[in-house]
Structure formats: C-alpha cells, structure tokens
C-alpha cells in the first residue's frame, strides 16, 4: 500500500506539472508542444486499460460466478495502469537522453503484466463460464490488454533487438498459464499469435512517437546552433577586418621602434626621424581602426535588409522586403537608424517568435519616413522587449536622436507589428 501511495503521489505531481503548460499552451515552443502531445499519447495507452476491461466484463457482470474474477481483473488493471504511467514517462525521458530510472519501471510493468495475466487466466479458466455472449472468454482478453499495453515502454526504453527478446520472453511466460487454464496447446498458440501482432503494433507505435519527439528536439537544437554560428561568423568577420587593418601597421611600428632604439644607442640623429614615422603610422592606425568600428557600428539600410532576409531564410522564415526607390533618397543618418531597426527586429523575430513570414516595408508620408516591420508566430504573452527589455528601448533612443519615434500598434492574433518613423528635412 505504501508503494502504491507513492506512485499515486508521483503521478499527481506529474499531472500538476503537465497541467500548468496546458493552461499556457500558446507560451510553449513547438518542440515542447510536440513532446507534450506525444507524451500524453503514450499515457493514453496506459489509461485505456481500465475502460477496455470494463467494456469486456460488462457483458458477464450479471453472472454471480464471474464477480470474483471481475474484481481481480479490475484491481490488477488499476495496478498495471499506475505502474505503466510511470514506465512510459521514464522510458520516454531515457529515449530523449534525460536521467531516468527506466530499467526499474520497465521491468516492473512487464513483470506485473505477466503476473496479472497468470492470475486472471488461472482464476477464470476459459471453460469456467467466463465467456461473453459472443463466445470469447473475457479473461484471455484481459490478459491481452495487460500484455499489449505493457509492451509499449519496453519498445521505447530498450533497443529494438532487446525489445523483441523481452516480448518473446513475455509471451513464453504466459504460454503455460494459457495451457493450465484449460485451453488446448493449438488454441493457446493461436491466441499468442494474435497477441504477438497486437504487441508488435503497439511497440512500433510507441517507438515512432518517441522517435518523432527526438527528431523535433534535434531540429530545434540545429536551429539554435545555426543562429550561434551566424553570430560567430560575424565576430570572425570583425576580427578579420581588424587584423587586416592593424596587423601590418603594428608590425611596421615594432620594426621602426626597434630600429630607432638601435640608432639612439649609437647616437644617430636618424632615430628621431624613425620615431616621427612611428608616430605617423600610429595616428594612421587610429584613424583606420575608427573607420573599421564606424563601419561595423553603422548599419547600412540595404545591407541590413539583405542580411535580414538571408538570416531569416536560414531559419525557414519567408521575408518580404519592399524598400522602394525612396530608400536611396533618404539622408544617410536616417538610413543608418533604419538599418539598426531592421537588425534589432530580425533578432527579435529569431529569439521571441516562431514566425513563418516577415514583412519589411518602407514608405514616406506627411514628410516622414516610415519603416514598417511585421511578423507572425508571436505567442499570446507580453512581448519580451515591449516592456522592460533593452532592445526596443535602445531603438527608441536612436530614433529620438533624429526626432523620430517607435510605435508598436496592436495587430492581429499572433502578429507583432512595429513602426519606426523619422521626420525628413524639408
């Protein structure tokens, strides 16, 4: 009873953990939704045990001699259901590479199903009046339900080879019970053949559910890795540009400084000339570094739009860009600040949404340049950067420096829309 109570408590905790995500379904990512759906698909295979037994015993419940075996069948079905819920959970966690005591619960569920099958088969023999109106004994059906449902965690937790070995072992363990219950060997063999087909179907289905869950998580991991690689590539580009600019100049400064030291030690007047050249090269290096940093920190409108399309396309997001001919006519500061808006908006799309499409449109109206950005796939929760985040706050500060403003008007369900406006010189 203590062990059963612990199982009930743990299942209750699991239900509480699963209930909270269900209430905020829209806040979950696609991999989390997929796992939640497939995980509960596995749980339903265990929860169908008791309804299946009830439907079977309902046709013979009016016969007094069947009452004891019906009670035993329901009690065994309840015990197997509770153990199976935990077995399915640990088996899927193990398949996804998470810590789980899957061996214990898988062995316990399989062993309990075999023991329950022995009990119902021996307690209610096939010729002992426990037949339904259709003529099929209900105790073999109860045993089939227990064995088929218990074979699911085995196929998820173990490799296909060991799962097949375990399934054969379960069938071999039930065969003597079928013979002892009064059935002839040929009939029992036919029964086990049908049972094998049912176990194979359930095992393949459970294994497929687990495989689909792992594939979804692998794709999500690959997408994150792709984003990190894009950031690393940008850092590499900046370091390469800085190396190309500074490498030659620093080498020249080192050589001329060494030459100046040698000339100074010999009392040669050329040392001052060498140091003057070092000073000139150092000043030129400062200018070139400022140019590199300015080029890195200044966002070009067209370059940012092209880069946004490439990055979003790599994340399977269709990006529509409509800058029109007026983009080249905008002042350079306005183009730069709009480039920053596109860069920040692209980052938000990748980080805070599951977008399928994105729109970037530029237009002029009432003496103001308006950059419109819109994407779908936004969860029904407050946008992270809309309130206390620093992304949109930084854009507002950049736009305010040019007399512009940033607005986030209300859009449709699951859609985020942003408008950046900057006044144009008359």
Automatic annotation (TrEMBL):
One of its GO terms (cellular component) is membrane. The keyword Hydrolase does not apply. InterPro entries: HATPase_C_sf, HATPase_dom, Sensor_HK_TwoCompSys, Sig_transdc_His_kin_sub3_dim/P. Residues 234-301 form the Signal transduction histidine kinase subgroup 3 dimerisation and phosphoacceptor domain. The chain crosses the membrane at residues 42-61, 67-85, 105-126, 138-156, 163-182, 188-206. Residues 341-423 form the Histidine kinase/HSP90-like ATPase domain. This is Histidine kinase.
């Amino acid at each position: 009873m203590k062990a059963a109570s612990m199982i009930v408590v743990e299942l209750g905790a699991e239900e509480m953990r699963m209930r909270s995500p269900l209430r905020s379904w829209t806040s979950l990512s696609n991999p989390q939704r997929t796992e939640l759906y497939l995980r509960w698909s596995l749980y339903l295979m265990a929860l169908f045990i008791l309804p299946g037994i009830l439907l079977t015993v309902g046709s013979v419940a009016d016969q007094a001699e069947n009452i004891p075996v019906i009670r035993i069948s329901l009690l065994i079905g309840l015990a197997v259901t509770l153990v199976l819920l935990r077995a399915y959970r640990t088996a899927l966690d193990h398949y996804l590479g998470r810590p789980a005591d899957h061996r214990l619960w898988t062995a316990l569920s399989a062993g309990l199903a075999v023991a329950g099958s022995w009990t119902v088969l021996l307690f209610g023999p096939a010729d002992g009046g426990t037949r339904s109106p259709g003529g099929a004994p209900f105790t073999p059906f109860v045993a089939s339900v227990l064995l088929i449902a218990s074979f699911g965690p085995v196929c998820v937790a173990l490799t296909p080879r060991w799962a097949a070995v375990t399934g054969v072992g379960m069938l071999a363990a039930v065969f003597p019970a079928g013979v002892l219950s009064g059935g002839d060997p040929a009939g029992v063999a036919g029964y086990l053949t049908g049972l094998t087909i049912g176990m194979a179907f359930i095992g393949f289905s459970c294994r497929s559910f687990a495989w689909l869950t792992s594939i979804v998580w692998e794709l999500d991991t690959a997408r994150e890795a792709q984003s990190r690689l894009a950031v690393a590539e940008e850092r590499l580009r900046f370091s390469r540009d800085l190396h190309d600019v500074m490498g030659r100049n620093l080498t020249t400064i080192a050589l001329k400084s060494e030459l100046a030291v040698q000339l100074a030690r010999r009392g040669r007047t050329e040392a001052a000339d060498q140091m003057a050249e070092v000073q000139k090269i150092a000043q030129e290096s400062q200018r070139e570094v400022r140019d590199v940093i300015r080029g890195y920190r200044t966002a070009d409108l067209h370059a940012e739009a092209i880069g946004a399309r490439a990055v979003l396309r790599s994340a399977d997001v269709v990006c529509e860009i409509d800058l029109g001919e007026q983009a080249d006519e905008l002042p350079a500061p306005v183009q730069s600040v709009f480039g920053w808006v596109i860069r920040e908006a692209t980052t938000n799309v990748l980080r805070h949404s599951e977008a399928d499409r994105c729109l970037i449109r530029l237009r002029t109206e009432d003496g103001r340049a308006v950059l419109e950005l819109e994407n779908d796939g936004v969860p029904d929760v407050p946008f992270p950067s809309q309130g206390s985040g620093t992304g949109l706050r930084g854009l507002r500060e950049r736009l305010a420096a040019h007399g512009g403003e940033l607005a986030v008007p209300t859009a449709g369900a699951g859609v985020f829309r942003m408008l950046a406006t900057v006044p144009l010189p008359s």
